Automatic annotation (TrEMBL), chains A, B, C, D:
Keyword Magnesium: no
GO biological process, one term: amino acid metabolic process
Subunit structure: Homotetramer.
Record domain Aromatic amino acid beta-eliminating lyase/threonine aldolase: where: 3-294
Family the UniProt entry places it in: Belongs to the threonine aldolase family.
Pfam families named among the record's database cross-references: Beta_elim_lyase (PF01212)
InterPro entries named among the record's database cross-references: ArAA_b-elim_lyase/Thr_aldolase, PyrdxlP-dep_Trfase, PyrdxlP-dep_Trfase_major, PyrdxlP-dep_Trfase_small
Protein name in the entry: L-threonine aldolase
Cofactor section: pyridoxal 5'-phosphate
Keywords: Pyridoxal phosphate
Annotated SUPFAM superfamilies: PLP-dependent transferases
PANTHER family the record matches: L-THREONINE ALDOLASE-RELATED, LOW SPECIFICITY L-THREONINE ALDOLASE
A single MF term (Gene Ontology): lyase activity
Amino acid sequence: MNFASDNAGPMHPSVLDAITKANTGYEMPYGNDTIMPRVRDLVRKTFEAPEAAVYLVATGTAANALALATYTNSWDTMFAHRVSHVEEDECGAPDFYANGARITLVDGAGAKMDPDSLRHAITHTGDKGVHGVQRGPVTITQATEVGTLYSLEEIAQITAIAREYGLKTHLDGARFANACAALGCTAAEMTWNAGIDMVSFGGTKNGCAGVEAVIFFDPEKAWEFELRRKRGAHLFSKHRYLSAQMEAYLQGDLWLELGAKANANCARLVKGLETVEGADIPDRPEANMVFAHLPRAAHRRAMEAGALYYLFPFDASLEGPDDELIRCRMVCDWNKSHAEIDALIALLRG
Amino acid sequence: MNFASDNAGPMHPSVLDAITKANTGYEMPYGNDTIMPRVRDLVRKTFEAPEAAVYLVATGTAANALALATYTNSWDTMFAHRVSHVEEDECGAPDFYANGARITLVDGAGAKMDPDSLRHAITHTGDKGVHGVQRGPVTITQATEVGTLYSLEEIAQITAIAREYGLKTHLDGARFANACAALGCTAAEMTWNAGIDMVSFGGTKNGCAGVEAVIFFDPEKAWEFELRRKRGAHLFSKHRYLSAQMEAYLQGDLWLELGAKANANCARLVKGLETVEGADIPDRPEANMVFAHLPRAAHRRAMEAGALYYLFPFDASLEGPDDELIRCRMVCDWNKSHAEIDALIALLRG
Amino acid sequence: MNFASDNAGPMHPSVLDAITKANTGYEMPYGNDTIMPRVRDLVRKTFEAPEAAVYLVATGTAANALALATYTNSWDTMFAHRVSHVEEDECGAPDFYANGARITLVDGAGAKMDPDSLRHAITHTGDKGVHGVQRGPVTITQATEVGTLYSLEEIAQITAIAREYGLKTHLDGARFANACAALGCTAAEMTWNAGIDMVSFGGTKNGCAGVEAVIFFDPEKAWEFELRRKRGAHLFSKHRYLSAQMEAYLQGDLWLELGAKANANCARLVKGLETVEGADIPDRPEANMVFAHLPRAAHRRAMEAGALYYLFPFDASLEGPDDELIRCRMVCDWNKSHAEIDALIALLRG
Amino acid sequence: MNFASDNAGPMHPSVLDAITKANTGYEMPYGNDTIMPRVRDLVRKTFEAPEAAVYLVATGTAANALALATYTNSWDTMFAHRVSHVEEDECGAPDFYANGARITLVDGAGAKMDPDSLRHAITHTGDKGVHGVQRGPVTITQATEVGTLYSLEEIAQITAIAREYGLKTHLDGARFANACAALGCTAAEMTWNAGIDMVSFGGTKNGCAGVEAVIFFDPEKAWEFELRRKRGAHLFSKHRYLSAQMEAYLQGDLWLELGAKANANCARLVKGLETVEGADIPDRPEANMVFAHLPRAAHRRAMEAGALYYLFPFDASLEGPDDELIRCRMVCDWNKSHAEIDALIALLRG
């Protein structure tokens, strides 16, 4: 009964199948395998971006850090939400890959950048001449770290501000599929149509073993990215296994199907949580993740029965008053069964 | 007929099988999967090193760069052979991971450090006080980049010099298995018994999809390594798939069996090459790789029939005098069939 | 009539005199001059710290960045006030020198860290395990960037929190003398007595041409600092000219005398400003710097007559309603004459 | 009797005088002083380069590292002679400032790059595609670290090779004046006329206290350099004191006059050394520095009488056979008196 993260789940059978099929004979290494050109075509088609530069890496942090670094000078600062993976969960990888660049925090409800807060952060950064760090790219997360979504208009609003100041924009799409499925929009609509310049397109959390695509809609810095990826030790020799995962993931829009499934699972979970006495769900879950405040007694019942998910703070104690609300995060991937979800709810309800 | 590299071959069926088996249900991410403790035990047992810190990454460059960085200050220089992967083939990853540290080149025949050359490099580095870069770790490659081997005595000689100056030692074992099989020694004998402090233990080139173990015989910097790995974006969320590969690779000493097979394949290839008229093989191949000088006509016949391997220089032309010798590299993995080897020889012989 | 900054003023005659006296014959370079041992002794005596490691650099940014880097791993974050030189005015030098470490911002009135805000920043940093950046040193500025002061108790409160979490503390003393003179305390009381581990002791803004001392009360990392300073290109060959400045600055407590003079000049200025109709001075000036809101007409009169000081925003226009208040910063050094101050006030009053 | 280095000598009186004159009233900081525009003009006139970007820093290492970094990607390697300041005497500052770039060593007699060795280094660097570090700028030292000179033709030969591969060229001119005076050429002839793109123009070793000009003949990256300088903590607040030094140094071609004097002093010294019995001077001294092999007894006599200069190795013992030759370096600045030189010779001759 593991609701800790969508990265705790297995590969989708089609993805494993693709790895198995790829495991025959010899393939040239380092991205020169025969599968990768098909992957490139599929990404370009999916994003309606025939010129896009497309690369594969194995972790979301690598995708984010390498993409951002490509457009960040060491004396720049990147603009990210206070609650974002690049700020909180990458142990400074973006700073490292951008040779010591900085992250300037932007606020906003539901882990989404408030346009005014972004504008303030940008203008405040720019008022020190040579003495201050300079303005670098803006990065947003979709779906966000708390399971909410930017609407297409909200994305366009953010990128318009960035563009006004000549800044590049990046979308951390570790949960791209969940967002796209929930919004019912195309990949193009959620990205370059809305002004996004580069994307980390996640596969790992949504049915793959470990693969993310980095997509630059303008390929001008493609070669530089390749050098950065190699220097960062993220160019795989047996690259075919990354290619195979991504091909399976894109074929027949499996990514979208799995994203939608995960969202549906989460919706079922949320519906159940709402029936737990005392439960409070402040941010409306829009993708595959829910943050809820539940009574300690509910957590105790679930966890003693083996349920896995995160409490906040991480070391919150199950000892104490039964009624006290403790914040928790629960995540569903495509693979969750209705039975498992219902069993969790039953435990929580007691 | 691909003899370009041992990273062009497939996974061993047992390794794929392990991935398949690992693909059920939920596992905690980031190295907290249930397979990893078994991997740790297997590595420790294989190396007879019950205290060793053991970590998995997905590329050999990551293993080298992260291991070395853990013992290299940014103002240090690492000592490496002029013909080594860290110097020639990692786009500066060790420099990057060690925050701008330098590599000092050491010479020696057969891509092996000459002890006098190492000693000279170390003492020359140390004579400038605060003005010069400082002495960092010594790294050797076993099997070397040209397919030769350090004897155990030669390793001990190198590490003794390092130790004399208080320097740590690292063994780049991208082809650890081939070396160990060829020397007929244990993993412990080739490493800590001979004075080695840390090892990149390669799986990728020898039957895995992409996994390397980093092993520190002294675990004092284990936590620092974990931070460096995360910051470098090399901590896998779905880590179970790295664990599964490595477990299969170590179980029943599959690694050693595959290394021996690759070596035997190469021996067959070398034997054949010696029958090609005009062939010259300067460095005696001791593992799974051969560098040979062959007449252009031989290369032309092989390549026109689809054989793949590297010429030096990379852009050497197949047009020109038939007799002229052109240097080439051919590598065998465990998966090469006798038929394939013999077919290549037949082509080369014409 | 330049009130733009205390770095716009000249050297004190004694400092120039010392440079002139030092300009005879030959002196060994790189800190091995015959003056430096005396400087070291003077610093140790001034700070009552006989074991302290003492080094000279030429800019305040170098002092801060090098000192902090010595105790900051690349995966750490330093804790600094939102309004601090390291955050706002060093173009990311601390991040650069600490190989990509980060700065976490702490809030508090008057550009002084609020203890609760610091504690929150520290605990929030520590709750992500390997995924988040780790806790690095705490740095405070005394006098602050807005001309206020930490009391000795307030410093002790901050360092106590740092110590609780095992963190080192740094004091950016670009205006150390002004603070010490204003508080009427000793250098020791304002630093190690109050729990400070390292100090940037400024000379440049207070009568020197360009010299700052970096002081570590615990000399354990002295050699590492020397390497960092050299690698940062901040080890002067003709170091005697740094030594000479600092010796003159410390002799007879010239530093303290000049700090007191600058403060007195500022007090006179503030008194005058309070008589400007409409003036508003929110933060009480405690050292040698005042931030005031003055009517546009007052600024217009002063600036058209040649007065120099900064408006906020930097590009604030002198055209517009006369009564509108515009924020400004005025700084006094030791060299300001009463006449100059009074002339400015007269202009502002109209 | 200090012949250890030209950085052991004093400022020229005119330079001190300029500092004294600059020490009146208020000047805007950070390069906005009223002297700097005149300095810029003087440099441009001296180099016949009306478009050149001109900046001042205080150390030669800063000049080299910042200039090179401006044209070096972190994945590049700079080409430098094995015996050069950037390689041997800057504790890795160029690597640090270029965010981990590498230095590839070039050989050649007299510490001058052999064109064939340079070409080989460049082509060897370029043959690995994404796997190897990429080609960065070529830097030469004039006068060299062993006191020899490139002829104008030799410089042109080196820069022509660089240009062939699209690489930028840098001249480390810590002893620019000595070289220019010895060659009897103009500053333009020795630099951009001969294909040089950027220059570290040294003042410190030749009569200044601590100032070097960085000159880019193409100003396209001027702003980037300013950011790098600030971030490196090398932008001086009281910049007027750098400006004043450089103005005095350039006025009336003082730099050239002092360079010529230093050379003449060295010529006198060399002439004397040739009369020391057993003396051997392998590289012909062409500027202000001589490397000689002298009998131990001669060294002993000189050093026991207080002479200061460097032996190689640094810890060479004065105990031992009288006749044994020990290598030494002696450097003359403009300030050496004939009496001092003759006294040293007298001691050495015994």
